[in-house]
């Protein structure tokens, strides 16, 4: 029986896949990095996907708070002298005072101005609020509705009334999730030779929702 020579034993092993060792390490690095970034977000979106799917079965009791009062005389001149006709923020002094009275941050939100009334809508995730001020009498009415934590997270899932910062986060999260999925696909290509069920399972994930949509959704 012949023994391998030094020359034959030192011959490098040839990979049978299309990825070099350096490329594979890069794919694995991007895959685990994107999975770490997306982990908590994907858990949150999965859980809120279930709560959204069963929203009609989850009973919640909205909590409503209201305030009806009169503005101090010093603010009446601000309303009377204002010439805004369509959309503009409340004067800063008035916004700060109303924030203290209602417990809702008014800030520089734009209100709808008409000849008789100033109306400010303040929707948020899992909540809604509005403020109406009579420009002639100075009476204001504020109402706030809280629909609970489940509704709050459901609205985060949908990006409903969440503001620009959260919408940017959703875009960045979607990009990170795409990186996670695409690098996962590359890893499937790498290991498919040794795992015969790889492509049947991928096909199941593709065709099952397609068949359900075509046959059972009307």
UniProtKB/TrEMBL annotation:
This is PepSY-associated TM helix domain protein. It comes from Rhodopirellula baltica WH47. It comes from the Bacteria. The chain crosses the membrane at residues 29-52, 168-187, 199-217. Keywords: Membrane, Transmembrane, Transmembrane helix.
């Amino acid at each position: 029986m012949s023994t391998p020579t030094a020359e034959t034993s030192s011959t490098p092993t040839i990979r049978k896949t299309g990825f070099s060792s350096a490329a594979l390490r890069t794919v694995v690095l991007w895959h685990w990095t994107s999975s770490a970034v997306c982990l908590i977000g994907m858990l949150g979106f999965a859980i809120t996907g279930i709560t959204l799917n069963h929203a009609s079965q989850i009973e919640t009791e909205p909590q409503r708070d209201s305030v009806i009062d009169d503005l101090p005389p010093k603010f009446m001149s601000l309303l009377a002298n204002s010439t805004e006709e369509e959309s503009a923020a409340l004067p800063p002094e008035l916004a700060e005072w109303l924030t203290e009275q209602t417990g809702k941050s008014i800030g520089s939100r734009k209100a709808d101005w008409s000849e008789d009334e100033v109306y400010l809508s303040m929707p948020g995730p899992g909540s809604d609020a509005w403020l109406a001020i009579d420009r002639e009498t100075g009476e204001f009415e504020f109402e706030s509705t809280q629909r609970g934590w489940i509704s709050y997270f459901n609205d985060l899932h949908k990006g409903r009334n969440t503001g620009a910062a959260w919408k940017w986060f959703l875009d960045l999260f979607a990009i990170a999730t795409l990186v996670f999925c695409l690098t996962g696909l590359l890893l499937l290509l790498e290991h498919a030779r040794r795992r015969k069920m790889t492509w049947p399972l991928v096909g199941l994930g593709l065709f099952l929702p397609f068949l359900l949509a075509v046959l059972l959704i009307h």
